[in-house]
Design brief:
The protein has helices at 24-47, 54-61, 65-71, 75-80, 86-95, 103-116, 119-131, 137-160, 165-193, 197-211; strands at residues 8-9, 18-19. With 212 residues, it is mainly alpha-helical. The protein folds into two domains: 6-80, Tetracycline Repressor, domain 2 (Orthogonal Bundle), CATH 1.10.357; 82-212, Tetracycline Repressor, domain 2 (Orthogonal Bundle). It starts with 7 loop residues before the first strand and ends with a helix. 25% of the residues are buried. Residues 30-90 form the HTH tetR-type domain. One of its GO terms (molecular function) is DNA-binding transcription factor activity. Residues 1-32 are annotated as: Disordered.
Amino acid sequence: MTDGSVTEVRPEGSGRTARQPEGLREQKKRRTREEIHRAALEMVLDDGLENVTVDQIAERVGISQRTFFNYFPNKEAAIIGLRPDAAEQYARTFLARPADEHAWDSVVQSVREALNRDPEQHRMRRAVLFRHPELMRGLLTIFHELRDAGAEALAARMEAQGIDPQEARRLAIVYINLSSTLLMSAAQLSHEEHTSSDEALDRVLTIIAMTG
């Protein structure tokens, strides 16, 4: 592709969504967004939330304030770091899973992938949120968007597996809400016990299995 767009192709019978490689323009935009996010996290950890400004973050990355606002509306959004299409991306994680995979297994795998995507950055984000819980308020609207998109995609997968649409919707809502519990619990255990994200998630899953 020469215009930097991404074309999605669903191979026949695969149950997966294949994505063509990003164009150079999209790669550059993604790298810039990640650099802004990482700089914001590092600066807040070093200096505190109230002592970091948009101008300082932009200077750290080597961009103008105007360029900063092309990516994030404020410093809080830069700290949280979610993409504008985060809900769509979240839905794709389920649509890309094997067609015959159990929905709960898809949820667990999506949590595991989220925890292991750039572990160092995830560690910094977790530390910032624990230190500045007021930032969690900014996640509420995003969380609802992610939840709705994820539940819709997961329900569609279960319907394709022959589950009644109403039951699929009900199960999808429960599974998606449980995924948030998995993610937050594993993140907290990993932070408090200084273990890897995988170990923390496995411990959470073991506890859930024991209570069942």
